[in-house]
Amino acid sequence: MSSQPTATENAPSEPRGGPLDAVRRYAQDLNLGLLWRLLPYTRAYLGLEILMFAAMLGAVLLDQVSPLLTQGLIDEALPRKDLALLNLYALGLITLPLVRGLVNIWQDYLSARIGEGLVYDLRLALFRHFQRMSLGYYTTTPTGEIMSRLGDVNAARGLLTRVLPQIIINLITLASALVVMFGLDARLALLGLAMLPLYVLPTRFAARFAQGITKETMRLSNELLTFNNEALGVSGALLVKAFGRQDHETQRYAGLTSQVRDLAVRQAVVGRLFGLSTSLVGALGLALVYWVGGYLVIGDELTIGTVVAFTIYLWRVYAPFSNLLDVPVNLASSLASLERLFETLELPIEIANAPGARPLRHVQGHIRFDHVYFRYAGPPPDRLKGTEREWALEDINLEIQPGQLAAFVGPSGSGKTTVTYLVPRLFDPQRGSVFIDGHDVREVTLASLAHQIGMVTQETYMFNDTIRNNLLYARPNATPAELRAAVEAAYLTDVIAELPDGLDTMVGQRGFRLSGGQRQRLSIARVILKNPRILILDEATSALDTESELAVQAALERLFQDRTSLVVAHRLSTIRSADVIFALEDGRLVEQGTHAQLLAREGLYARLYRKQFKDQAWLLGLTPADLLAFPQPERQVLLALVRLREATLQAIAEAVEWQPDDVVPVLTRLEEDGHVRVLADGRYEPVLARGRRPAINNG
Ligand SMILES: Nc1ncnc2c1ncn2[C@@H]1O[C@H](COP(=O)(O)OP(=O)(O)OP(=O)(O)O)[C@@H](O)[C@H]1O
Ligand SMILES: [Mg+2]
User: Fold this and answer.
1) CA–CA distance from 624 to each of 492, 553, 620 (Å)?
2) What distance in angstroms lies between residue 612's CA and the mean position of ligand 1's atoms?
3) What is the whole-number distance in angstroms between the Cα of residue 378 and the centre of ligand 1?
4) What CA–CA distance (Å, rounded) separates 29 from 200?
5) Which residues does residue 454 pair with via DSSP β-bridges, in sequence order?
6) 482: number of CA atoms within 13 Å, CB side?
């Protein structure tokens, strides 16, 4: 597909072959075939294109008449001392540029309409394509590269609105000027043309050089974009600050930008050299024409007017010719971008609707993995060297009944998240199949699959918009009552009531204006609003006993109701409500069963439980919702006590940061209602009996 320069890349400029040969080689190097691929896109603009071409032709031809007027003025009006004729020629010389200018404006308008229209079409085509790319593409491609691929459209825009129209105009100008010149005097015309080859060598050299610089510049600006995205994004900025690496980042940035600077300087010098060589040759040609023309005038073979007109036409050959020689340089970068643009449009869509895919409707929520093997594309990340394994998931067989809550547990990197990715087809397994209600997920439409499945990912993502709009993203036509219900179910009503603009408060870049727990609950509310039959949740590990975490846990319990849930569990409260637990290790399913069954097996789960979940066991007595139902300040004191297990009055007072005297009445109330017990040594202990609702009335 690409006929890139290979052998000729670094070859010194060889003088053999004429200018035509050089031009032909430019064309080869430039992969002009790409322009043909633009043709299908231009079809919609055919009418405008014909008009534009007519306007160009008109403008150039009008322009070519004016030297003839100069000739007439010198050769006819002046010798005859004919004032009327002089006025007429002068008037013509004034009106012609005016008319031409108007035609030019019209032509600019037309070429802008066409060029910008094409840019719009290409941009849309690119974005559509990116929307269809699989998650795998986004995880393996740096954001900067994707952005710069979108930016390729801008280079294509220069090509369409500037470079291509200029090529056409220059060609028309060159051809028409040559015709007139040969008509005026063939000898002078040949003389002028004889100078042209002198243009070729220096420009060809400059063009090669510039091409190399252009490629290098593009590579660098990509790198810079990626760097900026990483270092100046919220998460990146957080990381830089957390590790105090500001100076290091600044140095890396300085390194990159200094390369950009040096390149730009080299580019400027090349431009100058190029300009110098062309203007030198131009001046030389002009002098020769005046010289030889002078002889011819003195020998009465030519009129003065013809020589003067001729010198004007000479510029109308040299200027477009030098512009045309410039074209490969301009084209080089535009075409490189265009090539990448088409390459992007051809990036394979890895996950697409199968031919004849049917929508998945009325889902019960039965899920089955049948001998599933999965491996991520690309080389395994470096940090895994040593523990590297062939499959991220190996021979996974499992079944989840409709409405069940299935918890996935296992060490980090064991493949829990990956399992959940295969259900909504964020990735497809290499071997084996995933079934929903007996349908292979690869045989249903992606849209219906996405409709039936709700996801809460490990890292919650919010658009920089209002809370309302972030919620409505799940279901744009939700009623205000449904919104309120979702907010209520996610324990966000109080949080939102305290925000300055309520639901219309902006969440900030990626939701960074909300606390971690609030953000998680917002993403839970979003899924509650969507109300999918199948829920996929990748729990974030989090603090054990803060109020916010309690609210998250309580919100989750609501979320699990009435649907099949696949949860990567980090919370004991989730594990406890699970109908079935799957324990993964190194990509293999090693155990499955209920909490009690797995504990009894004394295997992986029992080990994990002791390490990861045991310290959350204080919650075994009450559900998060029960705890949240306690009024303040009792809840705060009770939570502090739960965290301390057993504590003196002094210790409790320190934990809640009150005076001991203020804590006493609260503790007394809790004790009276049976939630706190005083031990023999005077210390306090929480009494948490499962299912016991708070008896405290704060009235
Ligand atoms: N996009 C990816 N490309 C390549 N390898 C990946 C990718 N995502 C995950 N992996 C690898 O696949 C394996 C399973 O990863 P997975 O994210 O499923 O683990 P996990 O059990 O969810 O871990 P954690 O508890 O840390 O979230 C790991 O070895 C991981 O390094
Ligand atoms: Mg994970």
Assistant:
1) 15, 6, 10
2) 19
3) 13
4) 16
5) 535
6) 14
Q: Is 387 in the pocket of ligand 1 (CB under 6 A)?
A: no
| Residues shown for the chain | 699
Q: Which two tokens stand for residue 4?
A: 């890139």
Name the fold adopted by 29-345.
ABC transporter transmembrane region fold (1.20.1560)
Token digits of residue 237? 């900025």
Best-predicted range by mean pLDDT among 106-110, 160-164, 275-279, 573-577? 106-110
Q: Are 151 and 189 in contact (CB under 8 A)?
A: no
Mutate to test the pocket of ligand 1, among 387, 414, 604 (most ligand atoms within 8 A of CB): 414
**How do the domains of the chain map onto residue ranges?**
29-345, 367-619, 629-686
Give yes or no for residue 412 CB within 6 A of ligand 1.
yes
The residue whose CA has the least distance to atom 5 of ligand 1 is 376
In this prediction the pTM is: 0.67
Which H helix or E strand runs over 443?
none
Q: How far apart are CA 178 and CA 597, in angstroms?
A: 94
The superfamily CATH assigns to domain 367-619 is P-loop containing nucleotide triphosphate hydrolases (3.40.50.300)
Backbone angles phi, psi at 466, to 5 degrees: -75, 160
Model confidence at 689, pLDDT cuts 50, 70, 90, reads: low
Ion ligand 2 neighbours, Cβ < 5 Å: 417
Q: Which ligand is nearest to the CA of 410?
A: 1
